[in-house]
Amino acid sequence: MNRNDPKLCSCFCQNYLQHFYNLETDKQSRFKNKNIKTVTEKLKEMQAFFGLKVTGKPDVDTLEVMKKPRCGVPDVGQYVLTDGNPKWERKNLTYRIVNYTPDMNQADVEKAIQKAFKVWSDVSPLTFKRIYDGNADIMMSFETGDHRDNSPFDGPNGLLAHAFQPGNGIGGDVHFDEEEYWTKGSNGYNLFFVAAHELGHSLGLSHSTDPGALMYPTYSYIEPNEFHLSQDDINGIQTKCTANNRNNIQKVAQVL
């Protein structure tokens, strides 16, 4: 994106705010000046979320954050399937790997996914069992472009993956953008980190404003041996669990 092109910059910002901050489109807004005001308000909301200087203008720092590869789940207003604060009604969940990326061998994909589930099972009473056919609670697949869930991917970089909150049907499912380059290391996008983040959404968590949290919206790579689930993430998943189990889940996850 050329920052010197005001029209292109404005279009980019509006698209970002529409997707992640519930900005109304011109068609949704009755008055054009009302929409302009809303853009400013939504920019301020986005800047506050990311800890930027709140100017209401698409300054350099704001555009840099907007351009970072990230999760496709909105920062404001999740992929809502049901009212309230949804969570799984049971603790023993199933998952299925529907297909594989050609970027990695199948064993490495399976190891990354298993490790991602362990991040959350280590700090909660949840258990995850893999099944190989039929419908699982959490269906995990690699998709491209418009894949019939009203949340199309945008090609390389940009939106890396998305997941849906707990519920029936598509609820809990995780989709990875196949047009990304998926790896088990630091080149491309690390499947383990992205999967662990998306599973947080599958379990009912929203994005975090803590840059050190796994549930922070933008992607960054950390050496797997140095990865620790943040206290913010732990608090989030434990809040989702019933009070009766809280005494049993005061563990801190460390991926070895």
From TrEMBL:
Binding site for Ca(2+) 3: 154-155, 159, 177, 180
Cellular component per GO, a single term: extracellular matrix
Binding residue positions for Zn(2+) 2: 71, 197, 201, 207, 215
Cofactor, free-text remark: Can bind about 5 Ca(2+) ions per subunit. Binds 2 Zn(2+) ions per subunit.
Sequence positions that bind Ca(2+) 2: 137, 171, 173
Domain of life, per lineage: Eukaryota
SUPFAM superfamilies named among the record's database cross-references: Metalloproteases ('zincins'), catalytic domain, PGBD-like
Name of this protein: Matrix metallopeptidase 1
Species annotation: Chelydra serpentina (Snapping turtle)
